[in-house]
Amino acid sequence: MRYVNLIISFMIFISFSFGITDKQLDDLIGKDYKTFRGIDETGKVVNIKSLIKEGKPAVIIFFALGDKPGTFDFLPKMNALYDRYGRNVTFVAVLLSRSSPEEVKQLKKMLPLKIPVLLAYNETIKRYSISKVDVPYIVFIDKNGKIKRIILRPESTMIKERPDVDHSDYENKTQNERIKSSIQIIEKYIKDIGG
Questions:
Q1: pTM for this structure?
Q2: DSSP secondary structure, 47-95, as one string
Q3: Where is the Alkyl hydroperoxide reductase subunit C/ Thiol specific antioxidant domain (predicted)?
Q4: Contact 63/135 with Cβ under 8 angstroms?
Q5: What angle do CA 9, 20, 82 make, to 5 degrees?
Q6: How far apart are CA 118 and CA 18, in angstroms?
Q7: pLDDT of residue 18
Q8: Is domain 21-192 annotated with CATH 3.40.30.10?
Q9: 192 Cβ neighbours under 8 A, 6+ residues apart
Q10: Can you name the residues that pair with 46 across neighbouring β-strands?
Q11: In the chain, what are the domain boundaries?
């Protein structure tokens, strides 16, 4: 039993140790967004700069396949915001996986997800200090290419946001209520960056 407790403690320590720190998040705010390469839905390698047009705000949503609430419960709710603001704001969903474009097509149907997906991995993870415990990881970029806001885990009681916002009320909400609240908050931030 002692070994089981030790192993559980070690796993909890490891899972939280590799999450992004508050300082790392704070260091991104107000700076130019970090570029990275990925594979678009046609299988072509592209730079995120080719997707985010100068003078147009953007929302980048980093996600992972193994994250059920964030990917399968939260991400499809972003479709409504994409439908509403996609003409004025660039949306990109970045899958942090070694999946193929064919797997992306299947995933988009299954979720369903309208937002264009870009496959990315090591370079992206390093540039944004992303760990599995941080996704969905949403970056709001203004029309000047500056990061204005970041939200991690919007469906979770462990939501983290920079600039810092108190989400202690999430403790008393169901997952569906947290997702609904987060979508409302995200819509406000999209309007703030020029949606």
A1: 0.89
A2: EHHHHS-TTS-EEEEEE-TT-IIIIIIIGGGHHHHHHHHTTTSEEEEEE
A3: 29-149
A4: yes
A5: 120
A6: 24
A7: 54
A8: yes
A9: 140, 148, 149
A10: 38
A11: 21-192
**CA 19 to CA 100: how far, in whole Å?**
26
Angle (deg, nearest 10), helices 175-192 and 78-85: 20
pLDDT grade for 15, boundaries at 50, 70 and 90: very low
What is the Cα 181 distance to its own chain's centre? 16
Q: How far apart are the first and last CA of the chain?
A: 55
Tell me how far apart the alpha carbons of residues 64 and 21 are, in angstroms, rounded to a whole number. Answer: 19
Q: CB 90: neighbour CB atoms within 10 A?
A: 18
Could you check whether the bond before residue 69 is cis, i.e. omega within 30 degrees of 0?
no
Closest CA to 23 of 121, 186, 164: 164
Q: Which of 168, 184, 160, 192 is nearest to 24 (CA)?
A: 160
For residue 110, give both structure tokens.
């299954």
Which tokens go with 42? 């046609």
Q: Which residues contact 56 (CB under 8 A, 6 or more apart)?
A: 88, 89, 90, 143, 194
**Listed residue (142, 135, 42, 122) closest to 93, CA to CA:** 135
Nearest to 58 by CA among 82, 74, 26, 37: 82
Instruction: Give residue-wise pLDDT tens across range 17-36.
Output: 458 899 999 999 999 999 99
Give me 152's structure tokens.
């991690």
